[in-house]
Design brief:
The chain is built from 16 helices and 14 strands. It is an alpha+beta fold. It folds into two domains: about 180 residues, no CATH class; about 210 residues, no CATH class. Strands 1, 2, 3, 4, 5, 6, 7, 8, 9, 12, 13 and 14 form a twelve-stranded mixed β-sheet that branches. The chain has a two-stranded antiparallel sheet with strand order 10-11. Strand 8 and strand 9 form a beta hairpin. The longest helix is centred in the last third of the chain and has 42 residues.
């Protein structure tokens, strides 16, 4: 039998049992669909996070306390480290220690909620510099003003709030000039940001920004910072600025061995690399776990093909009696197995495309972010290739069993 005839014969055999063929490829369909879905969502998440990080600017440098985390278990140590203090800010801004430093702003993260009269709202509360935040995100109050360096030095009880915070606490009432409570302390609202949504790592609509000195003294009772944000004069001098920051902080902390640093510096480039590595590894891990279903699907194909060989024993005997060779029989059953799994791969890709698009749309609406739909063409190509390979591998044994049957015994089979 020529190859074209074998293919036609295989197609005819598969069409005879459409329901069984459909159920046979179900495992392959599920596996490929899941891989497409995971890789699409993973790429969308990566694009979203990197896009938000990029909003900070290439000249941004972040200083964080503690040892640089090398894994998920190290993150907690960084959150509770207290190695960045006011003396470090003074050292960084003193003389020519960091000549290309354009701006610096310590950050204190305050867990809790803001309240006004009977209303309470769990906002993102930061002890920060309002001027620094406005310069980085290019956002300024639509009502009122920002607090300045004088307010920071005097530990003033003032706050600038987001539009969502104003809406939840004050409704249609005027917010500027009113006092909100944070951890039992009154803070006078002096400014309200316009609606802006998610920018980089925070939602501007949900923030409450107070002077970092006030947050340290009145809200948390600490003398350290959770991180320090700095900006270099330009992206061209970021590398030199990082070296100057590290040298200055080591001198401030009395550290001579860089391996004993109790702080670490992250640039936008480094942060992007970290995010890409983490998300890439997570996507690869999840995809490999889901790929197990392809193996399960392959075993299902092998089982059904073995059943098919038994059911079609007389057909095999008849074909051999009219001149088909062992090789012809083997090719026919191999082609049937590959056709089954390849079809499953194609259906899985189509289904994965549809579900990925719907998932991207749902995430955009649910999270109120610009979630980009990305279809992983590499995963689609691999899906078809791997599906066909699974059919080839798991169809080999049934095909050999079929080719070995004796034509005389096959014809006598009832």
């Amino acid at each position: 039998m020529i190859l074209l005839h074998i293919i036609k014969t295989s197609l005819t055999a598969l069409k005879v049992n459409k329901v069984r063929s459909s159920l046979t490829i179900l495992g392959i369909v599920i596996g490929v669909t899941a891989i497409i879905l995971i890789m699409s969502i993973g790429k969308g998440a990566q694009d979203l996070i990197l896009g938000e990080i990029g909003g900070l600017g290439a000249d941004m440098i972040v200083i964080r306390p503690g040892k640089e985390p090398t894994g998920p278990t190290d993150i907690a140590g960084t959150l509770f480290a207290d190695s960045l203090k006011n003396k470090d800010i003074q050292a960084l801004t003193r003389g020519g220690n960091v000549p290309h430093l354009k701006a610096i702003a310590p950050v204190v993260i305050v867990p809790g909620a803001a309240s006004y009269k009977g209303e309470t709202y769990r906002a993102q509360i930061f002890g920060w510099s309002a001027d620094f935040m406005s310069s980085v995100f290019n956002i300024f109050p639509e009502e009122g003003v920002l607090f300045d360096e004088t307010d920071i030095k005097q530990q003033a009880s003032v706050a600038v709030i987001g539009s969502k915070v104003k809406e939840e606490l004050f409704g249609t009432e005027e917010a500027v000039g009113k006092n909100i409570k944070i951890k039992g302390r009154n803070f006078r609202v002096i400014g309200v940001y316009p609606p802006r949504g998610q920018v980089a790592f925070l939602n501007v609509d949900e923030v409450v920004v107070v002077p970092y000195t006030s947050a340290q003294t009145y809200l948390l009772g600490i003398d350290y910072f959770h991180e320090v944000l700095t900006r270099a004069e330009s992206s061209d001098v970021v590398a030199k600025t990082v070296r100057d920051i590290e040298a200055t902080l080591r001198e401030s902390h009395g550290i001579t061995d860089p391996a004993k640093d109790d702080f670490f510096v992250v640039t936008q480039e480094g942060l992007v690399d970290q995010i890409e590595t983490i998300l890439g590894a997570l996507t690869a891990f999840l995809s490999s776990v889901v790929a197990i279903s392809l193996v399960v699907g392959g075993i299902g194909v092998m089982n059904i093909m073995l059943v098919s060989v038994t059911e079609r024993t007389r057909e095999i005997g008849l074909r051999k009696a009219v001149g088909a060779t062992n090789g012809d029989i083997m090719k026919q059953f191999l082609i049937e197995a590959v056709m089954l799994t390849a079809t499953g791969g194609i259906v899985g890709i189509v289904l994965g495309f549809v579900l990925s698009f719907l998932a991207s749309f749902a995430l955009s609406v649910a999270l109120d972010v610009s979630w980009t739909f990305t279809f992983p063409f590499i995963a689609a190509a691999l899906g078809i290739g791997v599906s066909a390979l699974v059919g080839l591998i798991f169809g080999l044994y049934p095909a050999r069993q079929a080719s070995k049957k004796s034509p005389i015994e096959a014809l006598r089979y009832e």
